[in-house]
Amino acid sequence: MKAPRFAYARPASIAEALALLQKHGDDARVLAGGQSLVPMMNFRVAAPKVLVDINRIGSLTGIKVTKSFVRIGALVRHVEVERSADVAKHLPLVAAAMPHVAHPAIRNRGTFGGSCALGDPAAELPACTLALGATFVVAGKKGERRIAAQDFFKGLYATALKPGELLVAAEFPLPKPGYASAFGELARRHGDYAMVGVAAHGLRKVGKFSDMRVAFFGVGDRPQRASGFERALEGQPAVDGALAKLDADLEPRADLHASAAMKLHLAKVLADRVLGGLAA
Amino acid sequence: MNAPLETVEIEVTVNGERMKRSVPARVNLADFLRNELELTGTHLGCEHGVCGACTVRVDGEIVRSCLMFAAQADGCKVDTVEGLSDSREIEELQSAFVLTNALQCGFCTPGVLMAAQALLRDETNPTRERIREYLSGNYCRCTGYQAIVDAIEAVAKARAARSAR
Q1: Are strands B61-64 and B17-24 parallel, antiparallel or unpaired?
Q2: What is the complex's ipTM, to 2 decimals?
Q3: Taking residues A249-262, what's their average pLDDT?
Q4: Which among B1, B48, B62 has CB closest to A10?
Q5: Minimal Cα distance from A27: which residue of B?
Q6: What are the strands, taking DSSP E only, across B70-148?
Q7: pTM of the prediction?
Q8: CATH match for B7-84 among 3.40.50.10070, 3.90.1150.200, 3.10.20.30, 3.30.70.20
C-alpha cells in the first residue's frame, strides 16, 4: 500500500526540529532514514499527520572520537558506521554487527539513531549499546539530557524518549585494555531481522571471563542483558557451565520464525558459539 | 522549509536531466519516477523494502525508492535503470544476464542490475558467496538465483581480467 496523507517539514536545525515536534505533539513523527517508519506508514500501522524530516540537520551527523568516548550522531547512516575506521578500531562489536543490519541498499539510508529510537526488539544496534554501556544524548525543550542504554529500551518499540524529544547521538565509552567483544545472530536470510542474536563485551584475563556484558536480541520485547548468565561466567574459562542460567534470564516469545522453546535453544547454541569464539 | 506542507516543490536531477516538480508529500520516489516521469523500469513489488525491485541510485548510492518520499529527493541526483542502460554503464551486465538466462519474467531484473552494478563498482573481484550476500536484499521468484550469480561473476571476472592486462 501507499503511505496515508501527511504534511512534510524539513527543519535545518535541531532547534527547528524541536519546535516542530513540540508544536505538533503526538501528530508528528521524526523521519530519519525511513527504513522502518516508511514501511510502517505503507502498511498503515503508522499514520502521522506531520513528518519532521531531520535528514538535512548537519549537527546530527558525524562520528567523533574523544579521550573518553566514541560519539555516533543520530543521523549517521549504517553504511558510514560499517566503513568507519574509528568504529573498527574502538568499537569492534559495532563493526561486527553492521554486516548483519539489513541489506546494502537499506544500510545506505537507514540511520544509527533511527534504529535505536525505533526500539525494534530484534535489531542489532540497540543490543550493542547495551553490551557496551553506551549513553544516549537526547535534546528537548529544556536542553540536553543523557540516558544510559540500560534505561533507554522500555519495551516493544518503546523507549525512554518523551514526546517532543529528539535523539541526537550515542556515546560509547572507549573500551578498557584487555576487553574484547563478539557478535552473532541467526536469521533465515542474511540481512533479515534476527531470530536470536547476541552481543557480548568483557574482559578476557588469563584465559577467564570477567566483567562480561551479554545482550540478547530477538528473544523478548526489547534487547536485554542476561544477568544470571553474566554472573555465572565470572572467573570461568569456558561458557558451558553458565549456559543453563539462560533458562531463567530469557523469556523468549514465539513469533513467526520460531517457538519460544526453539528460541531459547538457539540462544544457548549462539551464546556458546559466540562467547566460545572469545574464549578461543 | 519549516511549515509542514502536503504538496512540496522539488528540484531533482533524474538520469542527468534537471527538473522542477510539485509533488504530494505522500508520494514515494518509485511512484514519482513511474507515474510522473513515466520511467517504468523501476518496479514496485512489496512496498516495504524487502524485495529490492525498486532499487535506484540517489546521489550515487543504491536505495529503496519505495522507502523514500519524492519530497526527500529534492536537490538530489537520481539514477534509474533507464539511465544506466542508456549510458551503457550496465551494458556488460545486461549481456551477461541474457547469455546466462539470468531472468525469466524480468520483474526483479532492474533492481538486481542496480545492486549488481553497485557491488562491481565497489569491489573488483567478489566471490560467489559475496555476490549472494550482497544481493540478499533482492528477491527473484523465477531463476533460483544461480544464473544471476553466474552472470555477475562472469562480468566481475571479465573486468578483473581486463584491468590485469
Answers
A1: unpaired
A2: 0.95
A3: 92
A4: B1
A5: B4
A6: 77-79
A7: 0.95
A8: 3.10.20.30
